[in-house]
Amino acid sequence: MKILVTGGAGFIGSHVVDLFLKDGHNVTILDNLSTGKRENVPKGVRLVEMDICHRDVDRLFAEGQFDVVNHHAAQIDVRKSVSDPIFDARVNILGSLNLLECALRHGVKKFQFASTGGALYGEQDYFPADEEHPIRPLSPYGICKFTVERYMFYYQQVHGLEYVAHRYANVYGPRQNPHGEAGVVAIFCDRLISGREAVINGDGKQTRDYVYVEDVARANLLTLDKSLNGAVNIGTSIETDVNAVFQILNQAGNFGAPEVHAPAKKGEQMRSVINWSKAHELLGWKPQMNLDDGLKRTLEFFQR
Ligand SMILES: NC(=O)c1ccc[n+]([C@@H]2O[C@H](COP(=O)([O-])OP(=O)(O)OC[C@H]3O[C@@H](n4cnc5c(N)ncnc54)[C@H](O)[C@@H]3O)[C@@H](O)[C@H]2O)c1
What we know:
Blueprint: E1 2-6, H1 11-22, E2 26-31, E3 46-49, H2 57-64, E4 68-71, H3 78-83, H4 85-105, E5 110-116, H5 118-121, H6 140-159, E6 162-168, E7 170-172, H7 184-193, E8 199-201, E9 207-208, E10 210-212, H8 213-222, E11 230-234, E12 240-241, H9 242-252, E13 260-262, H10 277-283, H11 291-303
Parallel strand pairs: 1-2, 1-4, 2-3, 4-5, 5-6, 6-11, 7-10, 8-13
Antiparallel strand pairs: 9-12
The structure holds nicotinamide-adenine-dinucleotide.
Nicotinamide-adenine-dinucleotide (NAD) binds next to helix 1, helix 4, strand 5 and strand 7.
């Protein structure tokens, strides 16, 4: 298939690209390299350096005649979405809408979207949250993700464009950017290796559902030829607190670093964990990497 991967020079998108290539697909990457890196783009793959909001995206679609759009490009910083919700909406809503309109004009058959579990469900009523859990985003970032899900529903119902929203848990693994606000695993790896303090916000008892990036990429491969037209959680259903993540990394690398805490970040979600049984039922997907091994692999990547 001819597939356009937006954000393919970034963390998750680049792993998706690797897997699509391995499966024999013809991949083009659209990325403005704002957080992505050229070195994440495999040799021989076309990288179009452009903003997803730009009107020339239409020309790329006209030339490319893509079968599938896999949309990972985004403003991913939740705190930035709070401080600048207009920029966030411009990239995450209007940019996505630009791609959907191009997809419609140029005969794309399927639209795959990187959505979020944690940021959509908000403080959960029950654990782990399935796809039927009430949607209560507590950030502009989460609102944008859900808005795009609604747009995809509309494009499917009214125009017949197939779609899937992968609602990711907290994705971690090699190539994650350690210099942003997101991605505690990458940040801890970077700090521990360079001998700086890996500071834990608050008491560190806030929990997340950590899913390995290759498991996430595999979900993208599995939905290429399935008609889902809906949302599917991609997580592990296992809650792990930040203290435990710190300790596993600290021990795996023999760093002997002290546990350092800073005041809690205001408004930080306390618990987040999602149920993956729908992905298993519809796709046969399940998470394969356990946290200890995944963290070790990630640490090794950053030590290289
Ligand atoms: N990392 C997670 O835990 C997580 C969880 C849920 C959802 N997601 C979603 O997965 C996707 C990928 O996230 P990531 O963690 O790999 O982040 P990332 O920052 O590594 O990847 C985003 C990519 O998009 C590109 N990009 C950003 N704005 C762009 C624009 N306007 N035009 C073109 N390209 C642009 C960046 O250069 C980068 O390569 C995002 O949509 C994110 O919201 C991530």
